[in-house]
Design a protein that fits this description.
This protein has helices spanning 6-30, 36-43, 47-55, 72-82; strands at residues 33-35, 62-64, 67-71. Strand 2 and strand 3 (67-71) form a beta hairpin. Helices cover 60% and strands 12% of the residues. Pfam families: HTH_17 (PF12728).
């Protein structure tokens, strides 16, 4: 069994990292984000509740240009985990 050189090992690692970054970029392009108004309306909560959730780090968010954005995938996943009959899906 030939011994791999450090360069070959590093090249393999770089290729793997490049694939991972490309997958993340593709996923980010397909992600849907909710803004404050969307979350408030969908879950019938107040501004202060949403603020408290952000402060307590109960929901993931990002701030872009003064707007808070929330990944739809988080809410979908959270709701799916709470379904009583999820085994039927």
């Amino acid at each position: 069994m030939p011994v791999r050189s450090e360069v070959e090992i590093l090249q393999t690692q770089v290729e793997q990292l490049t694939k991972a970054v490309l997958q993340l970029k593709e996923q980010a392009n397909n992600d849907i984000w909710y803004d404050n108004a969307d979350v408030l309306k969908l879950f019938n909560i107040s501004d202060s509740t949403l603020l408290r959730y952000r402060k307590e780090k109960k929901i993931p968010f990002t701030k872009l240009g003064g707007r808070f954005l929330y990944p739809k995938a988080f809410f979908t996943k959270s709701l799916m985990e709470k379904l009583e009959n999820k085994h039927l899906l």
